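Why should sequence recovery work at all? Because a backbone constrains its sequence more than one might expect. Tight turns favour small or flexible residues, buried strands favour hydrophobic ones, and helices have their own preferences. The token representation captures these environments compactly. In the example below, the structure is given first.
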């Protein structure tokens, strides 16, 4: 796919300019908005782990694309024994190695190779939608399944509800949900649990000839309303799953 997007350079630029929740999160909104967005994702993650009986304490974990380490900090609090972070952006690797000396961080592209496991838990949070080439996504899934322990969990956050394939910006490719699930199944992965994280947070502005002033104004309103949007998502997204735009999905090896 000739999108002009070069993942390594793009993420290095983003994270070296904004090593914060905006740089790693939804860049169309403010840091304050992203704070609420991450809290909504956290609630979804906790619900999914409960449903699939996943606990992190004492595990050996691979975190793909740790970014600014927002999740890494939580994983440490929750008692992960060993964690290896793999990120395509050197800034992430260098900063997190300094911030988390008890864990290991390596520079690399998950679609090229993954440090040998086995791992009890692998997380891939908001990374696959940035692997815009399907062949590279298939390679990444293959690399990850080969280093999963038979009872391990692969936890992925992304939009699993898209009703069509769409690239709203060159660095994002949302797959049609059916295609997306088929890719996981072809890699030998079986869905253990999925929960919606966001319905009204994490929005993408609809396609169309909207003036940039209008996009900006809508983003500003959303920035101000972020706590309300968060409350809506945390309480109502479990009942509005088919409208969700962001999910936590937990997969296990189909052959275990
Ligand atoms: C949207 S950010 C998410 C960061 C973090 N997981 C979070 O949820 O806060 C995507 C992260 O994945 C990394 N990344 C993107 N493509 C990657 C790839 N092919 N292999 C490894 N890391 C990648 C980026 O450098 C960035 O740190």
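From this structural description, the recovered sequence reads:
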């Amino acid at each position: 796919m000739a999108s002009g997007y070069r993942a390594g350079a793009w993420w290095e630029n983003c994270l070296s300019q904004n090593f914060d929740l905006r740089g790693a999160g939804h860049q169309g909104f403010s840091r304050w908005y992203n704070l609420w967005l991450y809290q909504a994702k956290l609630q979804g993650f906790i619900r999914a782990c409960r449903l699939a009986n996943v606990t992190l304490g004492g595990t050996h974990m691979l975190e793909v694309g740790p970014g600014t380490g927002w999740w890494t900090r939580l994983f440490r609090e929750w008692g992960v024994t060993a964690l290896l972070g793999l990120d395509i952006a050197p800034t992430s690797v260098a900063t997190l190695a300094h911030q988390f000396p008890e864990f290991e961080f390596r520079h690399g592209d998950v679609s090229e190779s993954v440090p040998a496991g086995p791992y009890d838990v692998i997380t891939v949070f908001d990374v696959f939608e940035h692997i815009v080439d399907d062949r590279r996504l298939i390679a990444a899934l293959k690399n990850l399944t080969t280093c999963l322990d038979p009872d391990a969990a692969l936890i992925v956050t992304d939009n699993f509800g898209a009703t069509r394939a769409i690239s709203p910006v060159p660095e994002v490719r949302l797959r049609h949900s059916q295609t997306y699930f088929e890719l996981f199944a072809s890699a030998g992965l079986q869905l253990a649990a999925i929960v919606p994280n966001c319905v009204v947070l994490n929005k993408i502005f609809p396609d169309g000839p909207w003036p940039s002033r209008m996009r900006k104004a809508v983003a500003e309103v959303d920035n101000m309303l972020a706590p309300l949007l968060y409350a809506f998502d945390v309480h109502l997204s479990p009942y509005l799953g088919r409208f969700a735009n962001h999910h936590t999905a937990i997969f296990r090896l189909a052959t275990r």
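A few observations help interpret the result. The longest strand covers residues 148-158.
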